[in-house]
Specification:
It is built from 3 helices and 20 strands. By secondary structure, the protein is α+β, with helices and mostly antiparallel strands. The strands form 6 sheets. Strands 1, 3, 4, 5 and 6 form a 5-stranded antiparallel β-sheet that branches. A 5-stranded mixed β-sheet has the order 9-16-14-11-12, with no helix packed on it. Strand 3 and strand 4 form a beta hairpin.
């Protein structure tokens, strides 16, 4: 794959947004020196591009754009923007927001296209996207997510930095990092060595100072920190990284007896859980027993239950002692819990008597 040098392309006024995919996919071709087109042709190409984009853009998957190197690019350094294509493509376009348009035709369909700046200029700093078109088709993809090309200008003096509390702190401490410069109102960025992106950013307070706070630090926050800034009027130009501060976070030791206390708490929790389970089981057993007893009692006291017949009890007296005795038939009645019924008419008692007449019974 050959790199495409785009530092000598047409000036911006000759490469407006009108010269997007349809311009390079049509029968027209541009000379190496990018000669200007007349206004009517530009209008026609604009309309054609918008119609094609509106009808076809959603049919192709989105490409992705990456920057190499991804950071630390200074003015005059080479840099490459690589457009990764989910489908083989014949035309690829690189766009700079509000700036240049870079087309690239491919001799054969490939899955990536590279756009290289041999020596970066201040005007090439900015936000970029890419787009592609498949071979022998009017289908044009949507644009990729943007990437930012930030150029470091060594003419900006590095920022100063301070750390409070200094260097050694315990876990859970709030740490403050202050960054400042003397001459520029700017947006400050806090960097940590080993991180590819700034971990925090903040507009300066009063024009020259920014304060970053790390809340409740842990050993993972240990490391080397630096600051950079971007002047307010040049969002994609950066100062070089300034001086560094070292933060070391030490784990807070556990108080004496903490381990024994933890084990004791665990034992208490287990015993408490077992006790609660036993009490719960006992409560269930008592509940079921009481429920069964109550159902049995209700069944015995049901008003529809047939009353029991009273039993007749008979008393026998020996005949030898029967002289002068009166026999009475009694009825044994079993007590009942039923409410008493209205009194019935009294029945005459049956009395058996033996009367001696003339010495005979």
């Amino acid at each position: 794959m050959q790199n495409h040098d785009i530092t000598a392309c047409c000036p911006q006024e000759e490469q407006t947004a009108a010269l997007r995919p349809l311009l390079f996919s049509s029968a027209l071709s541009l000379s190496p020196r990018c000669s200007c087109l007349r206004a009517p042709m530009l209008v026609a190409l604009i309309l054609g591009w918008w119609l094609v984009a509106a009808s076809r853009a959603q049919q192709l998957p989105r490409p992705s754009l990456s920057l190499h190197p991804s950071q630390g690019v200074s003015l005059g350094d080479p840099v490459t923007l690589r457009c990764h294509l989910p489908r083989l493509a014949a035309w690829v376009w690189l766009y700079q927001d509000g700036g240049w348009l870079y087309p690239k035709g491919k001799e054969k369909e490939q899955d990536a296209a590279e756009f290289s700046f041999v020596s970066t200029l201040r005007g090439q700093a900015g936000r970029y996207r890419c787009q592609y078109r498949v071979s022998e088709s009017a289908e044009v993809s949507v644009e990729s997510d943007p990437v930012e090309l930030v150029l470091t200008d060594l003419r900006y003096p590095p920022s100063s930095i301070s750390l409070h509390p200094e260097q050694h702190v315990g876990t859970g401490t709030n740490v403050t990092i202050s960054c400042w410069n003397k001459d520029y109102g700017a947006t400050f960025l806090l960097h940590k060595d080993g991180s590819s992106e700034p971990i925090q950013r903040q507009d300066s307070s009063g024009g020259d100072t920014a304060t970053f706070t790390l809340f409740g630090v842990t050993p993972a926050d240990s490391g080397t920190y630096r600051c950079s800034y971007r002047p307010w009027h040049y969002a994609f130009m950066s100062s070089p990284l300034g001086d560094s501060v070292m933060l070391e976070v030490t784990p807070t030791p556990a108080p004496p007896g903490a381990a024994g206390s933890s084990r004791g708490n665990l034992v208490v929790a287990v015993v408490g859980g077992c006790t609660a389970a036993l009490v719960f089981i006992l409560v269930l057993i008592i509940f079921f027993l009481l429920s069964a007893l109550r159902r049995r009692t209700q069944r015995d006291e049901s008003p529809g239950a047939p009353p029991k017949k009273p039993e007749t009890m008979e008393f026998q007296v020996p005949s030898s002692d029967s002289e002068g005795l009166t026999y009475l038939e009694l009825q044994a009645v079993t007590p009942s819990t039923q409410p008493p019924s209205p009194p019935a008419a009294p029945q005459p008692s049956v009395i058996y008597t033996e009367v001696a007449v003339g010495g005979r019974h």
